[in-house]
């Protein structure tokens, strides 16, 4: 697997897209490492077989693009609703089936990453390094899922709005949450964004996957 530590997520997406998905651990591979690979490198049902975490990041970037576009015309209800639908498609295509996203969604991808990093930590061959950083990755990916669910609820309100005056403040909230999908937020005001519940996002998850891979000697 390629390390996420010190690399941009955009680079990770290129690496992941070319990877081959391992359904199970290959000969001589630790099961914990196989699950790490599902998070960072490849998974069977993602677009182009990308890893779950890069898939979540790619969808979040699409949502961020359309949140920014939406705010360019806050007085145009049709414009706001169109881009709200695009955001919903990137976050959860089961809610909005058509759009510019990858068709997988932040919720499914980030939730899958949280599941597989937990499976890595529960594997019999998991090291203390994996178990420690799995907590950090799991919390940050779950934060992304929680924020994505908030985005869905707000997006549906935008679509149901009858005028731009009602829709625009909701889109502002969506734009803030969309940024937090990747960047997280300094929830406790201590000047730092950590992996903890309510703070870290997908970037923080990627950072701790890098630490985990470094500790495992994976490059």
Which helices and strands appear, and what pairs or packs with what?
Elements: H1 9-17, H2 31-40, H3 52-70, H4 77-91, H5 106-122, H6 128-160, H7 164-183, H8 202-216
How would you explain this protein's 3D organization?
- This protein has helices spanning about 10-15, 30-40, 50-70, 75-90, 105-120, 130-160, 165-185, 200-215.
- The longest helix has about 35 residues, at about 130-160.
- It has one domain (about 10-215).
- It contains 8 helices and no strands.
- The protein is mostly helical and about 220 residues long.
- α2 (about 30-40) runs antiparallel to α5 (about 105-120) and α4 (about 75-90) packs parallel to α7.
Q: Give the total of domains.
A: 1
Alpha carbon gyration radius: 18 Å
Give the low-pLDDT segments: 1-24
Please state the average pLDDT score: 88
**What is the total tally of β strands?**
0
- The protein's oligomeric status is single chain
Count of helical regions: 8
Query: Termini separation (Å)?
Result: 6 Å
- How much of the polypeptide forms β-strand, as a percent range? under 5%
The topology string of helices and strands comes to: HHHHHHHH
Largest sheet: none
Instruction: Choose one word for the global shape.
Output: elongated
Task: Please identify the structural class as seen in this structure.
Answer: mainly alpha
């Amino acid at each position: 697997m390629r390390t996420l530590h010190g690399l941009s997520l955009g680079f990770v997406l290129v690496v992941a897209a070319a990877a081959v998905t391992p359904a199970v651990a290959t000969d001589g591979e630790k099961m914990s490492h196989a699950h790490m690979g599902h998070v960072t490198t490849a998974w069977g049902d993602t677009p182009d077989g990308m890893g779950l975490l890069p898939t979540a990041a790619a969808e979040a970037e699409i949502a961020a693009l359309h949140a920014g576009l939406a705010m360019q015309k806050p007085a145009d209800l049709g414009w706001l609703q169109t881009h709200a639908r695009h955001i919903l498609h990137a976050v959860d295509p089961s809610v909005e089936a058509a759009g510019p996203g990858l068709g997988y969604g932040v919720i499914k991808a980030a939730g899958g990453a949280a599941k597989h990093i937990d499976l890595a930590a529960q594997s019999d061959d998991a090291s203390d390094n994996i178990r420690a950083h799995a907590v950090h990755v799991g919390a940050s990916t779950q934060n992304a899922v929680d924020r994505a669910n908030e985005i869905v609820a707000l997006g549906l309100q935008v679509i149901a709005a009858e005028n731009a005056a009602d829709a625009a403040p909701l889109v502002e909230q969506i734009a803030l949450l969309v940024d937090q999908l990747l960047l997280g937020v300094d929830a406790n005001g201590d000047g730092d964004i950590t992996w903890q519940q309510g703070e870290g996002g997908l970037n923080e998850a990627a950072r701790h996957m890098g630490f985990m891979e470094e500790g495992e000697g994976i490059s």
